[in-house]
Structures are given as structure tokens and as C-alpha cells.
Design a protein that fits this description.
Length: 135
Amino acid sequence: MNKRKKGLKIVGLFLFSFFFFLAGVFHFIEAQGFSKMIPGFFPLREELVYITGIMEFILSILLLIPKTREKTGIVTAIYLVLIFPANIYAAIKGIPAPGQEEANEALLWVRLLFQPLLIWWVLVVSKIEKNHRFY
């Protein structure tokens, strides 16, 4: 891997981890908004939001540790797949994004397109190249 590609991968890793950590923070700031995105038949919806926020903290940190990076990338991708139905539910039901008073219907559906991009992003930046200490 050339230096430029390696540099971009490292920047992408740190950006993903930073934004994923911020998403975890946002789970605590807007727990009620996130809990509305979970169908009503789930018990303890707000508690589930806190648990997922903590998971995002942990995963974002583990992505930065070379020994845990590759497996954490896979676990993070699986996590993103598992929470995707909440975004679909919010789009179908017209539930505003956490922190918003009104739902932008188009934006709710466009947001669904970004989940596969996030999954691809974490898998690319978490893949460890052979013969590299940090990467």
C-alpha cells in the first residue's frame, strides 16, 4: 500500500471512530428521540438507546486499537445492519430524526442510503494490511 493510500485509510479510520463516538454521545443527549425510532413492541426502548450508545463508544475506541481493529470492524458492520430496521421504521412512520421537531420525509428515506456506505466505510478502514504495525 502506498503512503498516500495508507494516509487516507488512517484519516478515514479516525474520522469514522470520531463520528461513531459522537453518535454514541448523541444517544444520551437525544435518548427520547432515538427511542421513538424503535417499534413500540420492544420493551425498555430508552434503555436500549443507552445500551447502543455505550456500544458505539466501545466500538469506536476498539477500532483505534490495531489488535482489535479488524474484528471490531466486522462487529461494527454487523451492528449497523442490526440497527438499520430502526431507520426503516422511522422512514415508514415519519418519525423525526432525534433532536428534530418535524420529520423531513425525503430526508428520512435518503438517510437509508447512507447505512450501506457506513458499513462499507468501516470494513475498508478496519482491514489490517499485512506487514504494517499500525495498518
